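Sat 14:20. Reprocessing the chain from the morning session after the first attempt stalled halfway. Input below, unchanged.
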Amino acid sequence: QVQLVESGGGSVQAGGSLRLSCVASGYTYGNYYMGWFRQAPGKERERVARIDRDGSTSYTNSVKGRFTISQDNAKNTLYLQMNSLKPEDTAMYYCAAGCYNYRYSVCNFWGQGTQVTVSS
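Finished this time. C-alpha cells:
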C-alpha cells in the first residue's frame, strides 16, 4: 500500500521561502516519475515540477529559477524548495507518484496536500 505524506506548508510573506517534503512509503519507483502539483481555489490543478527516475527535472514556466525539486532515495523523500515566493504561488500543494504521460500527468498515487499561503 503506497502512502504519500506531505509536510512543510505554511504562511509566508512574499519573497520568503518554504521547503515541502513528501515521504513515500510502500512505493517502488519503476518507470514513472514523481511530481509536485498545486491547485488554487477556482483554478485547475497544475504540475509545478517533476523528477524522473534518472534525476532529470522539469518545471512549469512560472516557477523556473525559484523552485527546485529533488529527491533523497535513501529517505524515500521528495522535496520542493520554494524561494522568492509570490502571492500567486498560494495554493494547496500535492505530491504525486507513479506518474506517466508528461503532457497529461496521469498519477497513480497522491498525497493529502499541504497548504501554502503567500501574503503580499
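The mean pLDDT is 95.
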